[in-house]
Amino acid sequence: MATHTTSIPATPDVVIIGAGVVGLWCALKAKQQGLSAVVVDKGRIGQGASGGVLGALMPHRPVSWEDVQTFQLEALLSLETEIADLEAVTGISCGYSRCGRIMPVDSDAFLAEHEQWQAGSTRFWPAVSRTGKPISWEIMRGAPDPAWPTLKPAFVAYSFDTLSARINPRRLLSALASSVQPEVVVVENCLAVTISNDGEVLLADGTRLSPGRVIVAAGHESFDLLQPVLHCSLGWGVKGQAVLLRPKDRSFANMPIIYSSGIYVIAHDDGLVAVGSTSQRAFTDGDVDEAVSQKLVQRAVELCPGLDGAAIVEQWAGIRPRAAGRDPLIGPLPDASRVILASGGFKITLGIAHRMADAALAFAMDAPCELPDSFTVQQHIANCRSSDRY
Fold first, then answer.
1. CATH fold of the domain at 5-51+170-234+325-385
2. What are phi and psi of 216, to 5 degrees?
3. Cβ contacts of residue 201 below 8 Å, gap of 6+?
4. What pLDDT does 5 receive?
5. Which residues share a beta bridge with 57?
6. Most buried one in 12, 110, 134, 217, CB count within 10 A?
């Protein structure tokens, strides 16, 4: 890994700004295409939202199905084999498991909604994954699997789908970083100050790079970086918090994701349990708020009493990129075609980052690329113009 800008080639095929999950997938795809690539990040690999602790990979609810949901579904299905290939190359386990997801149902009205989702799953989801594993959505009106830790009693029913999965975000980042080197130059603590309309990148130390293409994958900071080129901000950051717990016993190890009222409880293969997350649009900094962490623990214990007394191993806070049009934002800029943006995935970024990278590299190579219209930069600019953020 490069530690200073003197080791950066000045005219690579592609410069990738941001060493989070999207940027590193872009680097891997560039390497696979035989392109010379440089990755620069103002901090460390995964220092932003990508370096969290949750790792939830959950599909959209199977109702009102559109091309956006199809994009995410295909990404979740393809991720399993992409991770297997990545692990085979690097020897690093990413902690991936199609563990499924259980959602407690606390009212008859909510049960009727879940029944609609279950019906939609048979219409919009495939019957098996690409590795041949069955995919289903079941509604259990009795107690869930007794092998799982006890949930709060008195739920009306439980929804359980086998499409949802989890991954260890930090081990994924480690595997991606390992997979691209030494062919790809990765430089940490290297701030990109400006990007010109013709794709020239100015770094904080005065170094200028003139790549064939620039891919901006710097999370929520992408929006401010490109504002001078676009003359508008295409999104903003949303702060989130999570905690990592060590339960008193390891009975959580093979548990599905528990999801209820915005709270995730995710047991990882190292015996730790991640709980999150919050969404905070207005915030003064990205630091951990211990009161929020304690509230997360309280809500997790209320949902899953077996977590009572679990030790807090880590408190995490990060700022996720939320595009103005809600959907991810991928593609070249209208008046700067050599600059490609890949950001705005918000909470689903982890599960679609590899497909975002496929699209960004297709644009970089002037290859065909089919994306939902709502992902395009032009559509997001239109959204900004119709709001007070333009």
1. FAD/NAD(P)-binding domain (3.50.50)
2. -95, 110
3. 15, 17, 40, 192, 194, 195, 208, 209, 210, 211, 214
4. 60
5. 165
6. 217
- Strand ranges of the sheet holding 263-267, from the earlier edge strand across to the other edge: 137-140, 157-161, 101-105, 257-260, 263-267, 273-276, 235-246, 311-323
DSSP state, 345?
B
pLDDT of residue 317: 96
Q: Residues 194, 228: contact at Cβ < 8 Å?
A: yes
CATH 3.50.50.60 intervals, the chain: 5-51+170-234+325-385
Encoded tokens for 80? 């399993």
Cα of 139 vs its chain's centroid, Å: 28
Take residue 1 and report the two structure tokens written for it.
């890994």
Locate CATH 3.30.9.10 in the chain: 100-162+237-323
Which conformational region is residue 46 in: left (phi greater than 0), alpha (psi within -120 to 50 degrees), or beta? left
Task: Say how far apart CA 150 and CA 131 lie, in whole Å.
Answer: 31
- Concatenating the DSSP letter of every residue in 123-185 gives HHS-SB-TTS-B--EEEESS---TTSPPPPS--SEEEEESS-EE--HHHHHHHHHHHHTTTSE
Q: Give the whole-angstrom CA distance, residue 283 versus residue 302.
A: 27
In this prediction, residue 390 carries a pLDDT of 41
What CATH class is the domain 100-162+237-323? alpha beta
pLDDT along the chain (390 residues), means of 10: 67 97 98 97 95 95 92 96 98 97 92 95 94 93 74 85 97 98 95 95 95 97 93 91 92 88 93 93 93 95 91 96 90 94 94 97 94 90 64
Closest CA to 70 of 137, 113, 123: 123
| CA-closest candidate to residue 373, choices 334, 325, 333 | 325
Q: Can you give the pLDDT at residue 378?
A: 87
